[in-house]
Amino acid sequence: MRKRRTFWALGYFLMGCACLFVAVVMAAGADRVIHLIPVAVIGVPGVLLTLRAPVLGVSCGPAGVRYSGLLGARSHAWADIREVRVAVVPGTVYSSDVPELVLASGGTDQLLMLGGHSWGRTRNRRVTRLAAELEAARVAAS
Q1: Which of 60, 62, 110, 121 is deepest in the core (most CB within 10 A)?
Q2: Parallel, antiparallel, or unpaired: how do β-strands 95-103 and 57-60 relate?
């Protein structure tokens, strides 16, 4: 089973740790219950980022693909995937390239946490390489 992690996982982890640190410092100085509201507002995302960041990424093996995002995980068997390609998510200033699984049912599943930014007509090389690796693994498993 091969695991590919997003580059941003370290940034998410560090941001989560910073939020947790701020929440703990604020909780230590809270003398009334109302003062704990900002602790919850900062602490809950801090816990989420700190705990989920180490598992962000995509794993592929003989059985299929498992994608772990910020809020959950999804799995697809190779038989359920017709193609792996790079999709372009348009934006106002720049566009984002994301690996996209074209499912046999006709739907698609974009792996947004593994996306990368691109300018103009050039594609993000890291995302293109990841999509090519996933497509090669799909073809090899078929």
Answers
A1: 60
A2: unpaired
